[in-house]
Specification:
The complex is a heterodimer. Chain A is globular. In chain A, 47% of the residues lie in helices and 12% in strands. Chain A is of the alpha/beta class. Chain B has a single domain, classed as Peroxisomal Thiolase, Chain A, domain 1 (3-Layer(aba) Sandwich). Helices cover 34% and strands 19% of the residues of chain B. The termini of chain B are far apart. The mean pLDDT of chain B is 96. Classes of the chains: A alpha/beta, B alpha+beta. The interface between A and B is medium-sized, with 23 and 21 residues.
């Protein structure tokens, strides 16, 4: 018995309507049918295609086909600033069986195919942002123009955990060649969803004509008339169907391995499809795309990825638990205590984003000069790269100054300390600062593990102290943990969140607790791995156990963090929580030996440093397998994450995941960490319950 | 200081958007600044021999200089058109004669030697900016009897003009209006209007994008009966109707002006040569009479007489106002030299943009009439003014002119 699959329906779909007008164009005999894609919202809500949108497009094509006398040509364009940004992914969460998933892919193919099948020339006038299914619609047209001001041009599918499965994997390589298609569909997507600039898209041959935005549509129509009447021939370079195509697919697989190590299927499926496109008919390609889309839509990796996407795009913008934004005080001058590397990075970031005066203080003129000098050098580099104008560079340099005395902070509204990680030093710095600061000035500490409440305890105004924990490198890592001490008041916290937003950081509110979110979980992670290795499992085995879980092997991460900092973090956590957090004797030896890490590099190859090997002591326990290592470590993480939620360190598992994504580089396809712990069954086994309901970051039960 | 020499000013080329009906017309969701930008870009596109950085000025007129017609519309238009940032711009206003005044101001600066090449034009989106929007007339206008109440209503001033010229009846006005519609229809059929139009993409959230390629206001097929049946909103049993007056419209126009030397240096075509111009003030309550004294001034300044003028482009704010001009100069209502392609009654009158439309149409007629040496563009201006610009035809050929005069004389029986 075959089950009838109804046409897909997404509840609450913001339907992109296809509005048709039949135009008279100078120089063209017959009418030009112009379709405008418009979801009725402004540019902040770009047009997308859900089932309703596809039905509207299909109805528009009905009207065009019914027009008599027959129209001369068809064009598609978008509402102001937006062409179309792809399939409506908001409804994917509702899909609970594979037949529905298959129907979604097929519906797109069927409607788009109608454009290809039209007997008249077809044009896409890409007036603005074009991604995914929007770009595929354009690729189904015979010719394309592109606005030189179009903001975003990309196939983000592999970034999200899908493939461009409405014809993209077949049409793009056959238009621009396998080599460039791999770059656009796979490599750009996996490189943090890199977009193409309009000029690049034109150079790649994705569009035929680049036109200014000022009169883009009128000129596109003029160009179309000339193409139709033959006065403007459209010439495209022939596609290299030789080894370059296969080489590119192979290169793409290596690239995917480097990025996801086989743990997320999308990129590999896309590469299979691009490989297929070299020789298969379009019909064969379409069938393969349908299957790939259905498989991926039904994968937990995709659902976790969409969950993660939502976290970084929505939750990151409205931090959970932040006080009313209107309570924030104005910040017109910022102080940074210390002039070391971290302080310099902070000063640069604040100057660039807040564009207010920043004063660095240090006890030593030489260090102070170095700190200010660092900022000036960085500004000069940005200037040399053309990222800043001379005027802007002058402005930024003039904003950052140094002072040996803290009276320079007298009119500062926000002071960040980045001095040595020692509670006594921090307390004395704050006490000294209070002599000069206005009572409402915020005292922020960049501590990575110390207690905010304790730091504030002896001050006249403890309510003004807040944790403001950045991640290294400050300019790159999005996460900023905003820590509320016992006495921190709402105005202080609101000001900290407001500054974080101006710094364009992802702020997450955290309760004052040892090492906050990321360092606590990474501390547990590293501690557990170290325990396993110290007990007797080879370093290489342990390190090879986290492909597709952590962004890099744990002992590579150790080198990046620095053994001394990792040791300090583990000791702090051990002191706070006891034996759950393991302090490795071997790590202590590495720090004592002043080794930069466990590995050394020889001729580009990484191997365990022989010196480290010499003093490293393994226990007598039998070596674990990769699976056993991974299971034991994930179990520890599940236990810790559950404890953090129970202790109220953060409000929800979502905050843990957002932190691990933006502060530790954990993957979208694992949803950060808790969806992975749920998916692998570890969460239920260790804690007796899932972190997230089924359907939140996984396929819901049908 | 070296001795100063005046420069000859030439009209290189002009273009315009199709005109739309204000309110629910084709440009209801299109910005005014986008209209003028479309025209400037078209002029640049049509003249690749003109390096954009050689443009010395952009003067754009608008009667209501707020919103999308504000912020110094000439400067805004230059930047949005993609002209080099080094090209300056300014805004100008003389209500209906704004575009015309942009041309004369720029021409004065070119003649003086300040500029080589410049753009002049006008824009009016009367749908977005009704005439007099946000105006705040001083109460002294009335208390001190500076103007009559009716001066603020253009329709009432036109009724007043009928009073002044009792021989100009509603029937004459309607007949004139009918001919304007017919001449526009004929000019469209002969392809004489279209070459000066810039296609403009028109936004509609409800219907999707469209493309404006023709003027929206013309009503081909209008009959005298149709016109006679229209209401006279400004007076009971009056004479002014929507049929014998220009409507409320949206549109933009612009032209390239240059010194004769710069045109020669750059290889710019010369469609017209500027002879002279004049502006004059009249009683605001009969503003339609304005073109008569302004033409007198222009003729006096140029040493020409009305008989020297072979083609007229008169703005048709109201039929009565054109008829008053013709009556004053003893020209027949249906003289073929007047508004050969029809006028604003059919095409529309987006206030500050109309002056340049007159010039662009005159330039095209100069090309068709090498026997004509001089042409005249004139218009009335709200609140009591008139403006006149006299142009010389660079295609003028004395031998064809002699033949033409002979033909005319033969037709007229050698009376003149």
């Amino acid at each position: 018995m075959t089950r009838q699959i109804a046409e897909p329906v997404f509840e609450n779909e913001v339907v992109t309507r296809s509005l048709v007008r039949f135009l008279e164009i100078p120089g063209l005999a017959g009418e030009f049918a112009l379709i405008t894609l418009d979801n009725g919202q402004d540019h902040t809500r770009p047009s997308t295609f859900g089932p309703g949108g596809l039905r509207s497009l299909s109805a528009a094509l009905d009207a065009i086909e019914a027009r008599s006398p027959r129209i001369a040509a068809v064009g598609v364009t978008g509402k102001p600033f937006i062409f179309a940004v792809g399939a409506d992914i908001s409804g994917i969460g509702l899909v609970t069986d594979r037949a529905q998933a298959l129907a979604l892919g097929r519906q797109g193919h069927q409607v788009y195919r109608r454009i290809t099948d039209l007997a008249v020339p077809t044009f896409a006038f890409i007036n603005g942002a074009v991604m995914g299914g929007g770009l595929e619609l354009a690729l189904h047209c015979d010719y394309r123009t592109l606005s030189s001001a179009a903001a975003a041009i990309a196939f983000p599918e592999c970034f999200l955990g899908l493939v461009p499965g409405w014809g993209g994997t077949q049409l793009l390589p056959n238009l621009i060649g396998g080599d460039q298609a791999v770059k656009v569909i796979v490599e750009n997507a996996l490189n943090q969803n890199r977009m193409l600039a309009p000029r690049q898209a034109a150079e790649l041959g994705i569009v035929d004509e680049l036109l200014d935005s000022a009169d883009f549509l009128a000129e596109s129509l003029r160009w179309a008339a000339k193409v139709i009447n033959g006065s403007t021939p459209v010439v495209r370079p022939s596609v290299d169907r030789g080894d370059a195509w296969d080489d590119a697919v192979a290169r793409g697989r290596a690239f995917a391995d480097a990025k996801v190590n086989g743990a997320a299927p999308a990129a590999y499926r896309a590469l299979d499809l691009i490989e297929l496109a070299k020789s298969a008919s379009f019909d064969q390609g379409v069938t393969a795309e349908d299957e790939a889309l259905a498989d991926l839509i039904m994968s937990d990796e995709l659902r976790s990825s969409l969950y993660a996407f939502d976290l970084v795009n929505k939750r990151a913008k409205r931090p959970a638990g932040a006080p009313e934004a209107s309570l924030a005080r104005k910040v017109a001058k910022v102080g940074v205590v210390g002039a070391g590397l971290m302080a310099g990075q902070l000063a640069l970031l604040v100057a660039r984003r807040l564009e207010v005066p920043v004063v660095l203080t240090d006890l030593d003129q030489e260090r102070l000069d170095q700190g200010v000098g660092y900022v000036h050098r960085e500004v000069d580099q940005l200037l040399a790269k053309g990222r800043l104008s001379q005027d802007k560079a002058n402005r930024l340099k003039s904003l950052v100054s140094g002072s040996l005395t803290k009276d320079a902070f007298a009119d500062a509204d926000f002071v960040i300390e980045a001095v040595f990680e020692e509670i006594k030093i921090k307390k004395s710095v704050f006490a000294e600062l209070e002599q000069y600061l206005a009572p409402t000035a915020v005292l922020a500490t960049n501590t990575s593990s110390l207690s905010i409440s304790e730091m504030a305890a002896d001050l006249q105004h403890p309510e003004r102290v807040v944790g403001f924990h950045f991640f290294n490198p400050v300019a790159v890592m999005p996460l900023l943990e905003v820590v509320r001490g016992e006495q921190t008041d709402d105005a202080t916290l609101a000001t900290a969140f407001a500054v974080a937003k101006q710094l364009k950081k992802t702020a997450i509110g955290v309760k004052d607790s040892p090492s906050f979110i990321v360092n606590r979980l990474l501390g547990r992670f590293m501690g557990e791995v170290s325990r396993i290795v110290d007990d007797g499992t080879p370093i290489e085995v342990a390190d090879a156990s986290f492909a597709g879980v952590a962004p890099m092997p744990p002992f590579v991460l150790l080198s990046l963090v620095g053994p001394a900092i990792a040791l300090h973090n583990s000791q702090t956590l051990h002191a706070a929580f006891g034996s759950r957090f393991y302090v490795s004797e071997n790590l202590r030896r590495i720090v004592e030996a002043k080794k930069p890490g466990i590995y050394s590099w020889d001729g580009g190859k990484q191997h365990v440093d022989p010196d480290v090997q010499a003093f490293f002591e393994h226990g007598a326990a039998p070596a674990l397998t990769n699976e056993q290592v991974r299971y034991q470590v994930l179990s520890a993480l599940a236990e810790e994450a559950r404890l953090m939620l129970d202790e109220g360190v953060v409000l929800q598992a979502q905050d843990i995941d957002l932190a691990m994504i933006t502060g530790a580089g954990f993957s979208f396809f694992n949803g950060g960490i808790t969806p992975l712990l749920d998916r692998t069954g570890v969460a239920e086994k260790v804690t007796g319950r899932r972190f997230l309901e089924r359907g939140v970051a996984s396929v819901a039960a049908g | 200081m070296t001795s100063r020499q005046l420069k000859e000013v030439v009209f290189v080329d002009g273009a315009r958007t199709p005109f739309g009906k204000a309110g629910k017309g084709i440009y209801a969701e299109t910005r005014a600044d986008d209209l003028i930008v479309a025209v400037i870009r078209e002029l640049i596109r049509r003249h690749p021999e003109l390096p954009p950085e050689r443009i010395d000025e952009v003067a754009i007129a608008a009667s209501t200089q707020i919103g999308d017609q504000g912020l110094t519309i000439g400067r805004v238009a230059g930047l949005l058109s993609g002209l080099p940032k080094s090209v300056p711009g300014y805004a100008i206003d003389r209500m209906c004669a704004g575009g015309m005044t942009a041309v004369t101001s720029i021409s004065g600066s070119i003649a003086f030697g300040a500029y080589d090449v410049a753009i002049a034009g006008g824009v009016e989106h009367m749908g977005r900016h009704p005439m007099g929007e946000a105006a705040d007339p001083n109460p002294r206008f009335l208390s001190d009897k500076i103007v009559d109440m009716s001066a603020l209503s253009m329709g009432m001033t036109a009724e007043n003009l009928h009073d002044r010229y009792p021989g100009i009846t509603k029937q004459r006005a309607d007949l004139y209006a009918l001919r304007s519609q017919e001449k526009v229809a004929k000019a469209y059929a002969e392809g004489k209007i279209q070459p000066d139009l810039v296609p403009v993409a028109t936004r509609s959230a409800e219907h999707g994008w469209g493309l404006a390629t023709r003027d929206e206001p013309p009503r081909p097929g209008t009959t005298l009966q149709d016109l006679a049946a229209l209401k006279t909103p400004f007076r009971p049993h009056g004479r002014i109707t929507a049929g014998n007056a220009a409507g409320l419209n949206d549109g933009a126009t612009a032209c390239i002006l240059a010194s004769a030397e710069a045109a020669g240096e750059l290889g710019l075509p010369v469609k017209m040569k500027l002879v002279g111009y004049g502006f004059a003030g009249v009683d605001p309550e009969v503003m339609g009479v304005g073109p008569i004294p302004s033409t007198e001034k222009a003729l006096k300044a140029t040493g020409l007489s009305i008989e020297d003028v072979g083609l007229f482009e008169l703005n048709e704010a109201f039929a009565v106002q054109v008829l008053a001009f013709l009556e004053h100069y003893g020209i027949a209502d249906d003289d073929a030299r007047v508004n050969a392609y029809g006028g604003a009654i059919a095409l529309g009158h987006p206030l500050a943009s109309s002056g340049v439309r007159l010039m662009t149409q005159l330039a095209r007629q100069f090309g068709e009439h090498p026997e004509v040496r001089y042409g005249l563009t004139a218009m009335c201006v709200g609140f009591g003014q008139g403006g006149t610009v006299i142009w010389e035809n660079p295609n003028f050929d004395r031998s064809t002119a002699v033949n033409a005069v002979n033909e005319v004389n033969a037709v007229r029986g050698g009376n003149k």
